[in-house]
Amino acid sequence: MIEGLRGAGLKLTPQRLAIVEAFADDPTHPTAQEIFERLRRRLPTMSFATVYTTLDTLAAAGLCAVRALSPGPARFDPNVAPHGHAVCDSCGALIDLPGRAARATAAPPAGFVVRAVETIYRGACARCRAR
Ligand SMILES: [Zn+2]
Ligand SMILES: [Zn+2]
Questions:
Q1: 2-75: what CATH class?
Q2: May I ask the CATH architecture of the domain 81-131?
Q3: Which one of 12, 36, 42, 111 is most buried, by most CB atoms within 10 A?
Q4: What is the distance between the alpha carbons of residues 27 and 94, in angstroms, rounded to a whole number?
Q5: Does this model's pTM top 0.70?
Q6: How far is the CA of 123 from the centre of ligand 1 (A)?
Q7: Residue 92 C-alpha to ligand 1 middle, in angstroms?
Q8: Can you give the residue ranges of every domain in the chain?
Q9: Please, which contacts does 62-70 make with residues 24 or more away whose CB atoms are closer than 8 Å?
């Protein structure tokens, strides 16, 4: 990701490096706001715009994926390989499905070119069910 940032022409400021570090191994698909809040104590001068722009640049360069599978702000996914998700209806949590990408179960509409097939489970996550 750091190489990618450099390739995308962004200067590697300490703030941008901290954003990449906070996010590169994160399986929870955080929102920009969540990453901002995580880093706020360590980098009190960093603005939300810096976090958002950095994530946006990573996504535009194909170094992370933007997931908008639940209502609310987009979530960022450091895993750009095709993979499925379980989406919680109540808290919006996004959980990676283990294993390989899905196989299509229905034919695409006429003339439609399929770029990817993704499995999405919708329901209630363990945390919400325990409540
Ligand atoms: Zn939930
Ligand atoms: Zn994911």
A1: mainly alpha
A2: 2-Layer Sandwich (3.30)
A3: 36
A4: 9
A5: yes
A6: 8
A7: 6
A8: 2-75, 81-131
A9: 62/4, 63/1, 63/4, 63/5, 63/8, 64/1, 64/23, 67/29, 67/94, 69/94, 69/120, 70/94
Q: How far is the CA of 44 from the centre of ligand 2 (A)?
A: 29
User: Residue 118: nearest ligand to its CA?
Assistant: 2
Q: pLDDT, tens digit, for every residue of 15-63? A: 888 999 888 889 999 999 999 999 999 999 999 999 999 899 889 888 8
Query: Ligand 2 centre and the CA of 96: distance in Å?
Result: 5
Rounded distance from Cα 42 to ligand 2 centre (Å):
26
Confirm if 87 and 122 have CB atoms less than 8 A apart: yes
Question: Which tops the pLDDT comparison, 4 or 22?
Answer: 22
Token pair 């190489």 in the structure block, residue? 3
